[in-house]
Amino acid sequence: MSKRLELIFENEMGANVTLSLDNPVYPANPLVISAAMDSIVAQNTFVSSGGEIVAKKAARIVDRTVEEMEI
């Protein structure tokens, strides 16, 4: 089982840009995540193919379970 934190932003073209972080601290603190996302937007930390990131949209923890099968 693995977890991934996905930070979803909007770029200048209106498209979604997702930044993924493996193995986040769990349970995650929404206030800390929101503040980090605000910082990313304010500092123009990343640029996407559709331009600069201009707004935060959402954050989510994705939990993935893989079950190996013997064949």
Automatic annotation (TrEMBL):
* One Pfam family in the UniProt entry: DUF2922
Q: Which InterPro entries does the entry mention?
A: DUF2922
Q: Which domain of life is it from?
A: Bacteria
Q: What is this protein called?
A: DUF2922 domain-containing protein
